[in-house]
Amino acid sequence: MALGDVVLVATDLSESADVAIKLGHEYAERAGGKLVVCHVVHEVLRSAPLFPQAVQADMEAVIHAESRAAAAVEDRVKEITGRPSNGFEVRIESGGADAAILRVAEEVAATLVVTGSRGLTGIARLLLGNVAERIVRYAHCPVLVARSHARTNKVLASTDLSELSQPGIALAGQVAAMQGATLTVLHSLDILPAPAFGFTVPFGGAPVVPPPELIEQMRTGADGVLAGIIERMGMKAERRVTDGDAATAVLRTAEELDAELVVVSTHGRTGLARVALGSVAEKIVRGAHCSVLVARSH
């Protein structure tokens, strides 16, 4: 099943969501897939058995709000994508935004969920909206956190060389092939000690730093493993092996390459483990200057 077979876009009709609509449209169009756009109206119904007229008024208000939202979403999607009214499906839901979007994703069997990030620039970029964050954590399929970025046709995938990270590499290869983009696969050797590493450092001890020869051997070995993974997947990709904290290395490399997309894998497997978004993935989703595609490792 292709990534763009059933694309669900979550929109709150904000500027950030407009980017999500645009990218979701592109993914669905490339795959000849279905585009579903979902907007959630806040539910305001009260429980007032002694005043049924109040409940009736609330119901009418919700119905009116949903009707207006449906028209607004349809107009926005047609304006951004150029699709006709019958070229996409609009879903208007009520209740909690993240729960509603996740429910619709399951109902339509989404192969990709696209959501905007409210972070814009600077420190605000770190303030990923709670709704987007929960969608990334709980969705059953890959999630694209969309950010506006110039088209550079450069995709960066990160891997810790484990089997759990390989779905992300495969997904990055699929996206790069669809877009005709250059793919770079990055692994970072997180072996150098951070400042004040270990119990002895604050008391005058020195952190243990591997000798340069050993670091070079590790780098060569990692590059060989990386080459083997890429070869087994039958992909064409550039390889990079760097040093340092993995999330920092990915964010730095994405900036250096001017990548328009970063692809990472979560480490959740099934059930409750799905909520365990890895700390590296979380930092990348929050801190990247471009869109981030989160692949689900099952």
TrEMBL record:
Coiled coil: none
Superkingdom to which the source organism belongs: Bacteria
Domain UspA: 7-147, 153-296
Family statement drawn from the similarity comment of this UniProt entry: Belongs to the universal stress protein A family.
Family matches, as PANTHER family: STRESS RESPONSE PROTEIN NHAX, UNIVERSAL STRESS PROTEIN UP12
Name of the protein in its database record: UspA domain-containing protein
Organism: Polyangium spumosum
